[in-house]
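Much of what follows relies on a compact textual record of a protein's fold. Think of the row as the fold of the chain written in a discrete alphabet. An example makes this concrete, so a full record is given next.


***
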Amino acid sequence: MGKEERFVRIYSHGKITVSEIWVDLVTGVNYVYHAAGYSGGLTSLLDKDGKPVVSSPAEIEAMKK
């Protein structure tokens, strides 16, 4: 029986220097990941007011398909 993934990548750009957006399917919180060479970092994606971007339940259900 397969285990359901908790995170889904919704955006990716680049090959050597990579920027990605990941969504936590449980909480809906969006994260941005950036990697260049041997280093990388992950942080929550913030809106213009400095609050975390959270996907709606409808958006999350669509990502699961």
In short: Helices lie at 57-64.
